[in-house]
Specification:
With about 280 residues, the chain is α/β, with parallel strands linked by helices. It folds into two domains: about 1-145, HUPs (Rossmann fold); about 155-275, HUPs (Rossmann fold, 3-Layer(aba) Sandwich), CATH 3.40.50. It has helices at about 10-25, 40-50, 55-80, 95-105, 120-125, 130-135, 170-180, 200-210, 225-235, 250-255, 260-265; strands at about 1-5, 30-35, 85-90, 110-115, 140-145, 155-160, 185-190, 215-220, 240-245, 275. α8 links the parallel β7 and β8 (about 215-220).
Length: about 280
């Protein structure tokens, strides 16, 4: 049984992501964990530091969240009546990412599905967004759902690669599972940087071809140009239902020199984005 984590702050976009997740796994047995994380307010923190915890306030906040989660679960169960799906409510009073990673470890979460609010100015908002931080730091794959997006059958998937990554089937398993479940076509997108691939790129492309050997897949070369514009235009032109890419937990220095495309894409896309962690070797240009 799949275990899916659904973080929610009860906003419209987080509720939309929950509905997407339920429709996405409509025919699959799943345990859905609805998680609400409460932040410690400054005056409560002061009380705790002074060894005078506001226990009644703490209990009130936690109980209120629990009640809202239970009401949401009851509404969902009545709406869908899907016997394959089980729902559990979780409330934490912690750092958002810490709460998510603790639940991943304790419950063995397979996938996080959450909404993104979008951004008119990516550069100013990206690092303040919960979705961006989850993509950066969560210890399992993330499926980010654009604001207001409704589920569509996953017939066509685009997977982006610059062929600098040494791929393996374990890292790609979340995507391969989706392809097997939905019987989707995968198009591997590569935006040209030069006329010829390096030896490393050729080898990694061959590895990728082997990883997708049991799927219906094709390699697509996009003309040189702005990476984001080229790929987003392709998604619209080809009616793509899901974009997938690998991500890496870069060091601070690497972040200064390597643009973290997954984080940026998550806020400028009109289709869901699946981000998987890459553990293999990575070759810089």
């Amino acid at each position: 049984m799949r275990k899916i984590l659904l973080p929610t702050d009860f906003s419209d976009n987080s509720i939309d992501a929950i509905h997407y997740a339920i429709d996405f796994f409509g025919s699959q047995a799943c345990e859905f964990y609805l998680l609400n994380v409460q932040k410690v307010s400054s005056f409560v923190s002061d009380d705790l530091m002074a060894m005078q915890p506001s226990e009644s306030l703490f209990n009130s906040i936690v109980n209120s969240s629990k009640e809202r989660l239970e009401e949401l679960i009851t509404h969902i169960e009545n709406q869908y009546e899907n016997k394959l799906h089980q729902f559990k409510s979780k409330v934490d009073y912690d750092n958002f990412i810490d709460a998510i990673n603790q639940l991943i470890e304790i419950e063995g979460i397979d996938l996080i599905i959450m909404g993104t609010k979008g951004a008119s100015n990516i550069g100013k908002t990206i690092f303040g967004s919960n979705a961006a931080r989850v993509i950066q730091r969560a210890n399992c794959p993330v499926l980010a759902i654009p604001n207001g997006y409704k589920y569509h059958p996953i017939e066509h998937i685009a997977f982006t690669s610059n062929y600098y990554t040494k791929y393996n089937t374990e890292d790609l398993k979340p995507l391969l599972d989706i392809v097997d479940m939905k019987q989707s076509q995968i198009n591997i997108l590569h935006v040209k940087e030069s006329e010829h691939l390096t030896e490393h790129q050729e080898n990694n492309r061959a590895l990728l071809d082997e990883c997708f050997s049991n799927t219906n897949h094709a390699f697509i070369e996009l003309e040189e140009g702005d990476l984001f514009k080229k790929i987003t235009n392709y998604l619209v032109d080809k009616d793509i239902n899901l974009l997938a890419m690998m991500s890496r937990k870069h060091s601070f220095l690497e972040r200064l020199f390597v643009r973290h495309a997954a984080e940026s894409f998550a806020f400028d896309l009109k289709v869901p984005l699946l981000v998987m962690e890459n553990t293999g070797e990575f070759y810089l240009k």
